[in-house]
Each structure stands twice: as structure tokens, then as C-alpha cells.
């Protein structure tokens, strides 16, 4: 097991008023597939809509995006449609951000969003993230070159 795998296998479970947050586990693949196989939910994501449980298993192995040597991490989110509009993403993100700054000694948390993903951009701005710039044609997603809005939150801004 490499350093990141060891670290992420020991992440704590976090609580909010309404949520119990925990690290992904291999057995979560079926739940991930439930939403990740819906094109409407994945249209703004940098990965393809999952076509099989194997895709979701691979995603769970990929999702770690933490750079301890630079004291920064990257935040991303996707939520099953049945939970939209309930304020769950900001609630969860605030708790994760606080943990990152308070316990991981992060100095910066980045969050990319496709420029046309207005809802995610609003959530990031609501959380205090600032737009650092737009990376033109940064990714080929769903067969199209996409511009990415790069947001960041620095320790002390939250």
C-alpha cells in the first residue's frame, strides 16, 4: 500500500447536523454506479458515465486527489438527483474543508468546474471559493474540448 492509500484508509468519519460522512469503501461501487450511470448526473464531470460496475470500482480507486507535499487538496462533488436542492453539498463540503485545514494542515483547496456548470460554480462561490482563472480547452470530456473554471479556497478564507 502506498502512502496515499494508507492515509485514506485511516480517514475519520465526520459528522454534520444531517450527515454522516465517511471515506469511500470498495463495497460502495454499487451505490456509486446507481448515480454514475445516469448521463444527466455525469454531464459536467471529467469522467465518462459508468457503463458497468467495473467502471465504478475503478473510480473508487481514482478518486483520491491530495498532494501532501504541497499542502493542498482538490474538492469535487456529485450528488444523486433525489437529494438535489437540500443544501447537502455545501453542508458536507464545509465539514470536509474544515477537516482539511484543521487536521491535514492544508493551505489551499482547489475545485475545478466546467464553465457551463453554473450550479456547481454557485455552490463553490457560496462556500467562499474564489475564481482563480479559466483554463481554456483543459479537458476533452464527453468528446468535446471543455473550459474549466478553477476555484480555490485558502486557509483563513473559509
From TrEMBL:
One of its GO terms (cellular component) is cytoplasm. GO terms for molecular function: protein-N-terminal-alanine acetyltransferase activity. Residues 9-153 form the N-acetyltransferase domain. Pfam families: Acetyltransf_3. Keywords: Transferase. InterPro entries: Acyl_CoA_acyltransferase, GNAT_dom, N-acetyltransferase. The keyword Transferase applies. The keyword Transferase applies. This is GNAT family N-acetyltransferase. It comes from Alteribacter lacisalsi.
